[in-house]
Amino acid sequence: RAKPRVGTFRYMTNGLGLYSRPFIESFEETPMLVAVLTYMGYGILTIFGYLRDFLRDWKIERCHVAREREEQRDFVPLYQDFENFYTRNLYMRIRDSWNRPICSVPGAKVDLVERVSPDYNWTFDYTGKVVEGVINMGSYNYLGFAENTGYCADASAEVTMKYGVGVASTRQEMGNLDRHEEMEELVAKFLGVESAMAFGMGFATNSMNIPALTGKGCLILSDELNHASLVLGARLSGSTIRVFKHNNMQSLEKMLRDAIVHGQPRTHRPWKKILILVEGIYSMEGSIVRLPEVIALKKRYRAYLYLDEAHSIGALGPGGRGVVDYFGLDPRDVDVMMGTFTKSFGAAGGYIGGRKELLEYLRSHSHSAVYAASMSPPVVEQIIASMKCIMGEDGTTLGRDRVQQLAENTLYFRRRLTEMGFIIYGNNDSPVVPMMLYMPAKIGAFGREMLKRNIGVVVVGFPATPIIESRARFCISAAHTKDMLDTALSVISEVGDLLQVKYSRHKRLIYDQIQD
Amino acid sequence: MGSPQVVRVGNNTSARLILNTWPLVCAPAYHLVLEGILILWIIRLLFSKTYKLQERSDLTEKEKEDLIEEWQPEPLVPPMSKDHPSLNYDIVTGPPSHKIIVNGKECINFASFNFLGFLDNERVKQKALTSLRRYGVGTCGPRGFYGTFDVHLELEDRLAKFMKTEEAIIYSYGFATIASAIPAYSKRGDIVFVDEAACFSIQKGLQASRSFIKYFKHNDMEDLERLLKEQEIEDQRNPRKARVTRRFIIVEGLYINTADVCPLPDLVKLKYKYKVRIFLEESMSFGVLGEHGRGVTEHFGVNIDDIDLISANMENAVASIGGFCCGRSFVIDHQRLSGQGYCFSASLPPMLAAAAIEALNIMEEDPEIFAILREKCKHVHKALQESPGVKVIGEAYAPALHLQLERSSGSRDTDVKMLRSIVDYCLERQIALTLARYLDKEERFLPPPSIRVVVTIEQTEEDIEKAASCIREAALAILK
Predict the structure, then answer these.
(1) What sections of the protein cross the membrane (chain A) (predicted)?
(2) Which residues of B touch A384 (CB under 8 A)?
(3) What is the band of B82 on the pLDDT scale with cuts at 50, 70, 90?
(4) What's the gap in Å between the CA of A197 and the closest CA on chain B?
(5) Which of A156, A207, A283, A287 is catalytic?
(6) CA-to-CA distance for A443 and A18, rounded, in angstroms?
(7) What is the DSSP letter of A12?
């Protein structure tokens, strides 16, 4: 996904009077010096990469890269050498920042399995020790439902012993349990839609249902920064795909107008339908979709809206009902509401909600209902229990408290980080906080230094982000107490000073809030 | 014409201009003309309208508004009739084990892929419970971002040891396993030879990979060889392209659609003769075929290193959720960065991984269950042979058989209705069966309608007798 834009710092407008609350986003521009140094850094790494490849070829350096079998030497090579250049020479150097194994609940504090590498990350040895009490700023645990005790865990435990763990059949054959139907009714109630259906994997929900909704002769307008599952689903559907600039309503409107006026390319036949694919919160940018404007456009141009709330369900809105709740809009305006249970509900799987006709069609035509095994009963129970908790139906205010706690934590964390002078991307209310690092060496250094001080963070680089915009991404959780956040913040400040990543030129910023 | 005269004129710009343009006037005429034309052409291009392929610049704003007003899209989904066969699911109350309660009636389960009976196994449930009490339910992240648990690493290790390969990688959804594995290796321009009876997830993986797909007739090695020979001739015409085009054969161990086995030794011979890689999909044969349940490679005695990738899902014999791929490290390690279902999706919940490990433990401790399962399959296969009007499709040792109508009525809908009535008849008499479901419009080679009969190790002789006689009666009653 090429994204040639450099972030701009802009005060967000309220756009045509559609917003009932201030919408504050910022994407500060990359400082020129930093950009130049980043490119230089990559240049140096590339030169060294070529040098190391040369040494490996001439057997001067020991080669750890796995090789093809002797018997298959004369087959066409499975990988092109340059395809793996990035993996061999850049990714390998900082590979220990990812795939860190854990051995406890992925809650606010987590235990990491200690591992060391004797040969610069080519292989890992497990020392047998465990790093305990690492503050977890990386897991998608927005409402803190990743727990092994409590109401939800007890309910799942009961179901495990009663129903077992597997289902061994598809939904349309013998895999449709009564618990599945109960869960789907609950999901529909939670979202405020007529009907809902759940699937075993969030990724597969997108890649299997978008092809069922659109086909040849349809147009898909997809945001620039959509997740791989949405892109795959759009590709598998066979429709024409056009990409509009990230969260840019002018670009979207122009594309809609052009599409309707000019029709299909070359034949100029009218499009059968137009589907707009957007996400609630974009996890790499931390931005929230401009939903009121998208809905206004959708109504004006009679397009259909597919909203992927993977990160925003449970995390936004006064009732935790997602981005529709956050903007105070009507859920019936969104044609297809999709989301996942992995992030805020501590379970696994995805769902689609919408009108009754849509769900009836999906029940008979979705690839997942026909060919994929249905969800495991304990996972279903976890979803039911956590959803009841958020809605307040279990008789406690735990759900509401958690939603509020998350909102407070988010605002506090973002404010403090901006005050410290880091460049933070995204919307003020999004619990996903990307912090810019830019230079390739700082990616690895940041991850390691934070781990030394007992904080676990996620760092991302190319190809998940544009090549010079590598970042560290914090995920705030309702389970984080203020003390944990303060500890984390002081450590981040310390490491930030050490690595000199406090790039922001707008310290102690006062945002302009334009209200409706 | 000589050099310009040297005239001291100080800083006078206009004089300088005249002096500087002197050579221009002295240049040959054709040169001046050519340059003049070029400059005029550039001026014309600068001022002409940009040519955009899409815009029809002859539309006024009003016309555009009218077009936008008039355009009516199709409804998001087409209307469904109320009695569409796949709209009404059978509801299972309680656990989907050997005695299953379908639509309120307790039946003997001949429909869930619970081959080794692990769905109801106490040990498996206990281990899952222990894991739940330790890790909670969900993993809250993909493998790369604190979603890797020690249970996952242990499961991958155990699977690799069980299958005697170097490495294994697990996915959190069975369907996504082979559908993510294929596009990780096979890209645009590569060639894939696939059996016609390949399952839907393989078809989706192929579609995502954008490679050239060549179908060969089901289990027909001569057809495959013909296609390979054609490809060889094509290669000789263009050796440069051939040197970078990867080739794959994708087959299933036990086909889910036809319940027969692929001729693996012949395939391995073809592999070395034509230099093609083999990807084997073993969802139905893992934990079923072979002396120790290692699948079709053990069944035929083929060296497992000859198969480049073995993919299977853990939702059948292992009775958990998810899937895995195993093979040599050279092949499998690539998926850790380029398998879409692995990198961009949350990892398998640890309790499901723990259940799979326990299932593997039982499989290793007690290899006789595979022989028992095979005996039962033979028994069922024989017992169903005597049903009039339906024929049994599948090998004698395949645990998931198909019952098709001996004589089709001509229309698929009628066939489906007749088979559904047989299923309903059996459900009434406490035998749980199911129709094999397909997406009619999406399948490339739609199999004929059939009833799926699944053999599990928990079924007793009486159960099998009861089921066989029930199907016989149903066939007699409905297919007169």
Answers:
(1) 32-51
(2) none
(3) confident
(4) 13
(5) A283
(6) 39
(7) P
Instruction: With CB atoms and an 8 Å threshold, state whether B95 touches A164.
Output: yes
Q: Is A404 on the interface with B (CB under 8 A)?
A: no
HSE-up (13 A, CA, CB side) for residue B176? 32
Q: Which residues contact B441 (CB under 8 A, 6 or more apart)?
A: none
Judge whether residue B190 has pLDDT over 70.
yes
Any B CB within 8 A of A365 CB: yes
> How far apart are alpha carbons A257 and B67 in whole angstroms?
9
- % of chain B beyond a pLDDT of 70: 93
Give which of B439, B376, B174 is closest to B284, Cα–Cα: B174
Q: Which residue has the tokens 């456009």?
A: A297
Is A343 catalytic? The answer is yes
Chain B segment 60-89 residues within 8 A of A by beta carbon are 64, 67-68, 71-80, 84, 86-87, 89
CA separation, residue A339 to residues A142, A196, A405, B9 (Å): 14, 11, 22, 81
Strand order in the sheet with B431-432: B92-93, B99-102, B105-109, B431-432
* Rounded Cα–Cα distance for residues A17 and B16 (Å): 62
> Which run of H or E residues covers position A382?
helix A377-391
Hey, is the C-beta of A254 within 8 angstroms of any chain B C-beta?
A: no
Query: Chain A residues with CB inside 8 Å of B71's CB?
Result: 260, 270-271, 302
Active-site choice (A180, A227, A298, A343):
A343
CA–CA distance, B339 with B325 (Å, rounded to integer) = 11
pLDDT greater than 60 at residue A40: yes
Query: What is the C-alpha to C-alpha distance for residues B181 and A33, in angstroms, rounded to an integer?
Result: 42
Interface of A with B in 47-76 (CB under 8 A): 66-69, 71-72, 74-76
Give the model's pLDDT for residue A6: 37
Rounded mean pLDDT of B402-411?
88
Residue B102 in tokens: 């379908």
The pLDDT-based confidence of A233 (bands split at 50, 70, 90) is very high
Residues B427-448 pLDDT 10s = 999 999 999 989 888 888 999 9
**pLDDT of res. A3:** 38
User: Between chains, do B330 and A69 touch, taking CB under 8 Å as contact?
Assistant: yes
Residue B22 has pLDDT above 50, yes or no: yes
Nearest CA distance, B360 vs chain A (angstrom): 15
**pLDDT given at position B386:** 83
Per the annotation, the verdict on A506 as an active-site residue is no
Active site residue A64: no
Nearest Cα neighbor of B175 from A453, A123, A349 is: A349
For the segment B340-399, what is each residue's pLDDT rounded down to a tens digit?
A: 999 999 999 999 999 999 999 999 999 999 999 999 999 999 988 888 888 898 888 899
**For residue B58, what are the β-bridge partners?**
none
pLDDT number for residue B1: 45
Q: In 3-state terms, what secondary structure has residue A190? A: helix
B200 to chain A, any CB pair closer than 8 A? The answer is: yes
